[in-house]
Amino acid sequence: MRLTVADAISPSYFVAIAAIQLGFFQQEGVNMEFVFSPPNPSQALKDGTIDFFGGSPYTGLRTFPGWRGGVLLCALSHYTYWFLAIRSDIKCEQGDVSAVKGLRLSASADPGLTVKRLLEEAGIDLQRDNVRIVPSPRRTSPYAYEQARHRRSPASTPALARP
After folding, report:
1. What pLDDT, in 10s, does the model give residues 98-127?
2. Secondary element (H or E) of residue 151
Protein backbone atom coordinates (compact mmCIF):
# COMPACT_ATOMS: atom_id res chain seq x y z
CA MET A 1 0.00 0.00 0.00
CA ARG A 2 1.11 3.55 -0.69
CA LEU A 3 0.68 6.57 1.59
CA THR A 4 1.38 10.22 0.93
CA VAL A 5 0.89 13.41 2.92
CA ALA A 6 0.14 17.00 1.96
CA ASP A 7 3.37 18.32 3.44
CA ALA A 8 6.24 15.98 4.29
CA ILE A 9 7.87 18.43 6.74
CA SER A 10 4.74 19.49 8.65
CA PRO A 11 4.38 18.29 12.23
CA SER A 12 0.72 17.69 11.41
CA TYR A 13 1.56 14.90 8.95
CA PHE A 14 4.94 13.77 10.24
CA VAL A 15 3.32 11.07 12.36
CA ALA A 16 2.18 9.16 9.24
CA ILE A 17 5.71 9.07 7.86
CA ALA A 18 7.13 8.16 11.27
CA ALA A 19 4.62 5.31 11.64
CA ILE A 20 5.93 3.80 8.40
CA GLN A 21 9.61 4.32 9.25
CA LEU A 22 9.21 2.98 12.78
CA GLY A 23 7.43 -0.15 11.56
CA PHE A 24 3.99 0.40 13.10
CA PHE A 25 2.18 -0.61 9.92
CA GLN A 26 4.45 -3.64 9.53
CA GLN A 27 3.68 -4.71 13.11
CA GLU A 28 0.00 -4.75 12.13
CA GLY A 29 0.73 -6.84 9.06
CA VAL A 30 0.35 -3.95 6.60
CA ASN A 31 3.07 -3.39 4.02
CA MET A 32 3.02 0.42 3.70
CA GLU A 33 5.29 2.56 1.53
CA PHE A 34 5.66 6.34 1.79
CA VAL A 35 5.61 8.25 -1.50
CA PHE A 36 6.09 11.98 -1.94
CA SER A 37 2.92 13.83 -2.77
CA PRO A 38 1.82 13.86 -6.41
CA PRO A 39 0.53 17.17 -7.87
CA ASN A 40 -3.09 16.34 -6.95
CA PRO A 41 -3.05 13.81 -4.10
CA SER A 42 -6.85 13.62 -3.72
CA GLN A 43 -7.19 12.74 -7.39
CA ALA A 44 -4.36 10.21 -7.06
CA LEU A 45 -6.30 8.65 -4.20
CA LYS A 46 -9.43 8.49 -6.35
CA ASP A 47 -7.48 7.01 -9.26
CA GLY A 48 -5.85 4.39 -7.02
CA THR A 49 -2.29 5.67 -7.51
CA ILE A 50 -2.07 6.04 -3.73
CA ASP A 51 -4.10 4.28 -1.03
CA PHE A 52 -3.94 6.78 1.82
CA PHE A 53 -3.59 10.57 1.88
CA GLY A 54 -2.79 12.52 5.04
CA GLY A 55 -4.06 16.04 4.50
CA SER A 56 -6.69 18.61 5.26
CA PRO A 57 -10.20 17.17 5.01
CA TYR A 58 -11.43 19.83 2.58
CA THR A 59 -9.02 18.56 -0.07
CA GLY A 60 -10.88 15.28 0.02
CA LEU A 61 -14.24 17.02 -0.26
CA ARG A 62 -13.16 18.58 -3.55
CA THR A 63 -12.53 15.15 -5.09
CA PHE A 64 -15.14 13.20 -3.09
CA PRO A 65 -18.19 15.51 -2.70
CA GLY A 66 -20.14 14.48 0.38
CA TRP A 67 -17.36 11.91 1.00
CA ARG A 68 -18.85 9.72 -1.76
CA GLY A 69 -15.96 7.47 -2.78
CA GLY A 70 -13.65 8.57 0.04
CA VAL A 71 -13.55 8.02 3.78
CA LEU A 72 -12.35 10.31 6.55
CA LEU A 73 -10.33 7.64 8.29
CA CYS A 74 -8.56 8.95 11.38
CA ALA A 75 -6.82 11.80 13.12
CA LEU A 76 -3.09 11.99 12.48
CA SER A 77 -2.24 14.52 15.15
CA HIS A 78 -4.22 16.08 17.96
CA TYR A 79 -4.03 19.59 19.41
CA THR A 80 -2.73 21.22 16.24
CA TYR A 81 -3.96 24.31 14.43
CA TRP A 82 -7.51 23.05 13.73
CA PHE A 83 -9.97 23.97 16.46
CA LEU A 84 -13.52 25.16 17.00
CA ALA A 85 -13.69 28.15 19.31
CA ILE A 86 -16.72 29.45 21.18
CA ARG A 87 -16.88 32.77 23.04
CA SER A 88 -16.22 32.31 26.73
CA ASP A 89 -19.58 33.90 27.65
CA ILE A 90 -21.44 31.04 25.91
CA LYS A 91 -21.93 28.21 28.37
CA CYS A 92 -21.12 24.82 26.86
CA GLU A 93 -19.16 21.69 27.54
CA GLN A 94 -16.22 20.54 25.42
CA GLY A 95 -17.58 18.31 22.67
CA ASP A 96 -21.12 19.77 22.82
CA VAL A 97 -21.66 20.47 19.12
CA SER A 98 -25.20 21.75 19.77
CA ALA A 99 -23.59 24.86 21.32
CA VAL A 100 -23.13 26.24 17.78
CA LYS A 101 -26.90 26.62 17.24
CA GLY A 102 -27.75 30.23 16.48
CA LEU A 103 -24.10 31.25 16.05
CA ARG A 104 -21.87 32.56 13.29
CA LEU A 105 -18.79 30.40 12.75
CA SER A 106 -15.72 31.81 11.07
CA ALA A 107 -13.87 29.68 8.54
CA SER A 108 -12.05 30.37 5.31
CA ALA A 109 -13.53 28.92 2.12
CA ASP A 110 -12.16 25.39 1.90
CA PRO A 111 -12.03 24.66 5.63
CA GLY A 112 -15.61 25.97 5.73
CA LEU A 113 -16.61 23.00 3.55
CA THR A 114 -15.24 20.69 6.21
CA VAL A 115 -16.95 22.55 9.05
CA LYS A 116 -20.26 22.36 7.18
CA ARG A 117 -19.90 18.63 6.55
CA LEU A 118 -18.87 17.84 10.14
CA LEU A 119 -21.81 19.84 11.51
CA GLU A 120 -24.21 18.00 9.18
CA GLU A 121 -22.84 14.66 10.36
CA ALA A 122 -23.37 15.80 13.96
CA GLY A 123 -27.05 16.51 13.20
CA ILE A 124 -26.77 20.28 12.86
CA ASP A 125 -28.90 21.69 10.04
CA LEU A 126 -27.50 25.11 9.11
CA GLN A 127 -30.92 26.48 8.11
CA ARG A 128 -33.03 24.96 10.90
CA ASP A 129 -30.43 25.65 13.62
CA ASN A 130 -29.60 29.16 12.36
CA VAL A 131 -25.86 28.45 12.02
CA ARG A 132 -23.93 30.66 9.61
CA ILE A 133 -20.42 29.98 8.36
CA VAL A 134 -18.82 33.33 7.55
CA PRO A 135 -15.39 34.26 6.14
CA SER A 136 -12.49 34.49 8.56
CA PRO A 137 -11.23 37.95 9.58
CA ARG A 138 -8.66 39.29 7.15
CA ARG A 139 -5.11 38.56 8.26
CA THR A 140 -4.13 42.14 7.53
CA SER A 141 -6.44 43.46 10.24
CA PRO A 142 -4.47 44.44 13.35
CA TYR A 143 -7.52 43.41 15.39
CA ALA A 144 -8.14 40.01 13.76
CA TYR A 145 -6.49 38.00 16.52
CA GLU A 146 -8.09 40.06 19.27
CA GLN A 147 -11.50 39.61 17.63
CA ALA A 148 -10.91 35.87 17.27
CA ARG A 149 -9.82 35.32 20.88
CA HIS A 150 -12.03 32.54 22.19
CA ARG A 151 -12.04 29.53 24.40
CA ARG A 152 -10.98 26.64 22.18
CA SER A 153 -11.51 22.92 21.78
CA PRO A 154 -8.68 20.99 20.14
CA ALA A 155 -9.30 19.26 16.86
CA SER A 156 -7.32 17.01 14.61
CA THR A 157 -5.64 16.70 11.28
CA PRO A 158 -7.34 13.84 9.44
CA ALA A 159 -6.26 11.13 7.03
CA LEU A 160 -8.34 10.15 4.01
CA ALA A 161 -8.63 6.73 2.45
CA ARG A 162 -10.48 5.01 -0.35
CA PRO A 163 -13.29 2.78 1.02
Report:
1. 999 999 888 777 778 878 888 998 999 999
2. strand 151-161
- In angstroms, rounded to a whole number, what is the distance separating the alpha carbons of residues 113 and 108? 9
How far apart, in whole angstroms, are the C-alpha atoms of residue 157 and residue 23?
Answer: 21
Give the residue-averaged pLDDT of 134-139.
69
CA neighbor of 84 nearest in space, from 57, 104, 59, 64: 104
Distance separating alpha carbons of residues 86 and 94, to the nearest angstrom: 10
Beta bridge partners of 153: 84
Torsion of CA 61, 67, 68, 70, to 10 degrees: 90
pLDDT tens-digit map of 29-67: 999 999 998 888 889 999 999 999 988 777 777 888 888
54 in Cβ contact with 13 (< 8 Å): yes
Delimit the domains of the chain by residue range: 2-79, 81-155
